[in-house]
Design a protein that fits this description.
Number of domains: 2
Strand content: 15-25%
CATH superfamily of the largest domain: FAD/NAD(P)-binding domain
Shape: globular
Structural class: alpha+beta
Number of helices: 11
CATH architecture of the largest domain: 3-Layer(bba) Sandwich
CATH class of the largest domain: Alpha Beta
Number of strands: 24
Distance between the termini: 50 Å
Largest sheet: 7 strands, mixed
Bound molecules: flavin-adenine dinucleotide
CATH topology of the largest domain: FAD/NAD(P)-binding domain
Length: 462
């Protein structure tokens, strides 16, 4: 088996799940000198960051940058490739009922180029890849993960490592290694899932005119519309980069409730729509996931047809793409050495072992399908994520990243944002490398040294 022989079976740091957070964790671990292997079930890196959403949360409501480091390097590389205009500022969260001085900014980018940028950054850092490999099990001895099992086209493969990072977006590794996990709110509610879709030839000027006269697009002055104008990556005139509101695509406008939407453009006339939703999906249950994929694909086809038929601005538009699968806003959260709460976030608390910053308001997509609720941070500030949220209580050599860190259902409503999970990934990768170098456990490393190392890599730790 010539091919089989080349499969790498062990590394110092094994990152399982090469998505938004995991890919950055692997790059950070390798740059910090650890022999690093990334195990990913897809054929590319990036996970949900390749679904077409813009990066949110790089800046707080006062316009101060709170995420930098590797996440900023990703943006810089996308800009150089003309796949992103960079950060687009100048939006506001203010509404007629809630006048606020609270900046809204976003960083749109071409998701195809995101796959490439992460691949190149990982390759340059010396990360080893095992793609098309899905975690199926973990061997735990005396509280430490000795090895994992993955399923591949070459059959089942066993891999071993000194430190493991769970970047699966579902805490698959933590769950299989026996860590305590939670899912949903105290009432058992889980945020809804969405299939993101792209439409081409959209006339956003007409959409905004319709919004102003409340013609099929609603919410002006009464909800967080956040109209943002800016340039795209190419030398083209200013245009609407971001529009939010409530859409009424139905033939009989009163027959069904409006759909809350955001529309984000990376290219002229091309907009990604975050609009349809399926509720009551447990993303760790294959039957639920199957139902979600079927329902959401039908929803997107129905809604995109109705937009073209009934909504101003869509007359010449067509559906030109959907994300690889439904986007999961919330999945397992691993119980760690510290549990980040909504109060910590909203009061902008700082921690001695802070390793990343976040600033986006808590954003809960109603588990029952109603309007999205936003909770804003004190004085438009930013919050801190302690390293302990990445360290599961019940494992000696595991770190958790992405939307699976130790935080409550409410706090995850902001820590899950892409800029924040990239910052978390950088911290975890750096911590994993430090663990290996110092021959300690993730729990016992010196967090002052970790913070120093992160600062030296231009990460913002609070
Ligand atoms: C509908 C929706 C809209 C959003 N909108 C925005 C937005 O506008 N702006 C923003 O900043 N954020 C947004 N977010 C949040 C953000 O995109 C995600 O929370 C974030 O990307 C999650 O990162 P992650 O690393 O935790 O998971 P992911 O990026 O999903 O990565 C998980 C990776 O693990 C792999 N994997 C999973 N299971 C296994 C396994 N068993 N074995 C091997 N590999 C595995 C997956 O293939 C994937 O590559 C949105 C999320 C959703 C769902």
């Amino acid at each position: 088996m010539g091919c089989e022989e080349q499969i790498r079976r062990k590394a110092d740091v094994v990152v399982v799940g090469g998505g938004t957070s995991g890919a950055i964790a692997a790059i950070a671990a390798a740059r910090n000198g650890a022999e690093t292997l990334i195990v990913e079930s897809d054929g590319f890196l990036g996970g949900t960051a390749t679904f077409g959403y813009p990066f949110l949360g790089f800046f707080n409501g006062r316009g101060e940058q709170v995420v930098s480091g590797l996440a900023q390097e990703v943006v810089d590389r996308l800009v150089t490739l003309r796949a992103s205009p960079g950060h687009v500022r100048g939006g506001t969260w203010s509404t007629r009922e809630k006048p606020m001085v609270y900046e809204f900014s976003l960083t749109p980018y071409d998701p195809e180029m995101m796959k490439y940028v992460l691949l190149i950054m990982a390759e340059e850092a010396g990360v080893q890849f095992l793609l098309h490999a899905t975690l199926t099990g973990a061997v735990v001895e005396d509280g430490a993960i000795k090895g994992i099992q993955v399923h591949t086209k070459s059959g089942f493969i066993n891999l071993s490592g000194k430190v493991f990072v769970d970047g699966t977006g579902d805490a698959d590794l933590a769950a299989r290694a026996g860590s305590t996990c939670e899912l949903g709110s105290l009432e058992g509610d889980i945020q809804n899932v969405t299939l993101h879709f792209r439409m081409t030839n959209v006339d956003a000027e007409r959409m905004v005119e319709a919004l102003k006269r409340e013609d099929r697009i609603l919410g002006r002055d009464s909800w967080y519309i956040r109209l943002v104008r800016g340039k795209g990556p190419d030398p083209e005139p200013d245009r609407f980069i971001h529009i939010a509101g409530h859409m009424v695509p139905w033939d009989d406008p009163k027959s069904r409730p409006p759909l809350t939407f955001t529309a984000v453009s990376q290219r002229e006339g091309v907009y990604w729509f975050n609009m349809t939703r399926t509720v009551r999906i447990d993303p760790t249950n294959v039957n639920d996931l199957t139902r979600a994929e079927i329902t959401e694909r039908k929803n997107v086809i129905e809604v995109s047809k109705l937009l073209i038929k009934n909504v101003p601005g869509f007359e010449k538009a067509y559906l030109s793409g959907t994300s690889a699968r439904v986007g999961v806003r919330e999945s397992r959260r691993v119980m760690g050495e510290y549990l980040l709460t909504a109060e910590d976030v909203l009061s902008c608390k700082r921690f001695e072992d802070g390793i990343a910053m976040g600033a986006y308001p808590i954003d809960i997509h109603d588990p029952k399908g109603g309007k999205t609720i936003f909770n804003f941070l004190k004085e438009a500030g930013s919050y801190n994520i302690p390293y302990r949220c990445l360290v599961p209580v019940s494992s000696k050599n595991l770190l958790v990243v992405g939307k699976n860190i130790s935080a409550t259902h409410e706090a995850i409503g902001t820590t899950r944002l892409q800029s924040t999970v990239m910052a978390i990934g950088q911290a975890a990768g750096t911590a994993a490398a430090l663990t290996v170098k110092s021959n300690l456990t993730p729990r016992s490393i010196n967090t002052n040294l970790l913070r120093e190392a992160l600062r030296a890599q231009r990460a913002m730790v609070g």
